[in-house]
Design brief:
By secondary structure, the protein is an alpha+beta fold. It is built from 7 helices and 14 strands. Helix content is about 25%, strand content about 25%. The protein is globular and about 55 Å long.
Length: about 350
């Protein structure tokens, strides 16, 4: 699979890390479980499944955390605790909307298995985020199992992150093209590393912008009639030493990265962001600007990487969502830059 950067498309000014993924922040790992199923429709079967679970595993827990909302038509469990205490106590799980409860149960089971004190001396509130994949995946039945949370956890690894139509991104759509999981990173001189992982499921074709160019207007229109909704969960990780209020400010900048891709945060869309820090020490407020810039750039590129990596996917009721056409996108960029 080619990358944006191999075509000369470089987002922003800061350099990426070795994997250009959230795993460039030391100790963070990503795992997926992809659920693809083709059965008769309910009640005889479970129908067509194009869904899954993705998990971001921090190097240790709890970690300082901050959360922010651009538009709240979505869910991130544990959001209130992060806002109140400034910490995240579990890995961060992503899945389809109707599967949040099932993945929450699996996350509890995984936490109990990892620490015998959980449920005895203390309790945890798992962090589970969602986007709606019901255009391609049958949502009348829950397609994932609680155990899939533990399987994703067991599969978590560092290094390159599989992106596109994988894990929680299997059934997601972005800007009328196949979306899903995307990631990118930035090296911030003197500040450390910063990475972003997105679950991209938002926007309409005409809104898509790549590196400031309105390429969506030059690409074929969406053949499906879809209401302008969707969602995007963005997870930000850094080894810069940040306190919870600083992390909330960092998380809020993910919304600027989405805006650069064309998002307007529609009424029915859930743009919810969470930032985590594994650093030790403190960072002065005046030193945050470079991290803010890194968050904006990495979020923008993560969304574009999700689009670039995803393949054409057929789902329920014969619906097909095409992959973003690479050649046409590059041609539109080059044409705009010549004018």
């Amino acid at each position: 699979m080619s990358t944006l950067r191999e075509h000369g498309i470089r987002i922003g000014e800061l350099a990426p890390g070795p994997a250009n993924a959230i795993t460039d922040v030391a100790g963070f790992r990503v795992g997926h479980v992809t659920v693809r199923r083709d059965e008769p429709e309910p009640p005889k079967g479970r129908g067509v499944a194009r869904t899954g679970v993705t998990v971001l595993v921090p190097p240790r827990l709890p970690l300082p955390a901050g959360a922010a909302v651009l538009n709240g038509a979505g869910e991130l469990t544990g959001f209130l605790q992060v806002s109140e205490w400034g910490v995240a106590e579990t890995p961060v799980y992503l899945t389809g909307t109707m599967a949040v409860g099932r993945v929450f149960d699996g996350a509890v089971a995984a936490a109990v298995a990892a620490d015998p004190a959980v449920g005895v001396e203390t309790v945890v509130i798992p962090v589970v985020g969602e986007c709606d994949d019901s255009f391609l995946s049958e949502a009348r039945v829950v397609q994932v199992e609680a155990a899939d949370a533990g399987r994703a956890l067991a599969a978590a690894a560092d290094g390159p992150v599989e992106q596109g139509a994988v894990g929680a991104g299997t059934g997601m759509i972005a800007f009328g093209w196949k979306g899903g999981i995307g990631s990118a990173s930035r090296v911030v001189p003197g500040r450390g590393a910063l990475g972003v992982l997105v679950l991209a499921n938002f926007g309409t074709r005409g809104q898509l912008r790549v590196d400031g160019v309105a390429v969506g207007r030059a690409l074929p229109p969406d053949p499906h009639e879809r209401r302008p909704a969707g969602s995007c969960i963005a997870l930000v990780a850094t080894d810069a030493p940040l306190a919870a209020p600083q992390l909330e400010r960092l998380a809020r900048r993910a919304g600027l990265g989405l805006a650069r891709t064309g998002s307007v945060a529609h009424h029915g869309s859930g743009e919810i962001f969470l930032a985590l820090s594994s650093g030790e020490g403190a960072t002065a407020g005046r030193d945050l600007d470079a991290l803010f810039a890194a968050t904006v750039e990495a979020t923008e590129e993560a969304v574009l990487n999700a689009l670039w990596s995803a393949e054409t996917t057929a789902g329920r009721d014969g619906r097909v969502v095409e992959a973003l056409p690479h050649d046409e996108t590059v041609a539109a960029l080059r044409a705009a830059r010549r004018n």
